[in-house]
Predict the structure.
Amino acid sequence: MNKLVRTGVVGVGAMGQHHARIWAAMPGSQLMGVADPSIERARDIAARHDVPAYADYHDLLDQVDAISLAAPTTLHREIALDCLAQGVHLLVEKPLAATSSEAQAIVQAAQQAKVVLQVGHVERFNPTFTELTNVLSSRRVVDGRSPAQPLCHPGV
């Protein structure tokens, strides 16, 4: 007998809403709820999938096996460590963290908890980007600057 994986989404903005949609439709997954500090946004996305909405992600953690984390990057470390401490498997929308030391802390916590930690790279498989890569593979992209001009100013 195959067990459903109880899933949730923390952060249901531009990317998180897609995580909720996909988890809700994926065979083998049961979307248990979504969390976002904007409770209005959480309720809107939750209503689309007939699941509960939470303003505080902590209220979702004891109901799930896995979380998609699509909150702002500056919050990834805190939320990820809370999820991992509860033994919740984690898919983090890229980047994993704001700094390399925060990323290392998340990886170490996942190893200690013996749970799956995955970084989402879904846009890598977006058909638009795949086709653009094919179209541009034999072309040289120029931005109108001379080779001596930097693309950005030092310190930017």
Notes: The two ends are 55 Å apart (CA to CA).
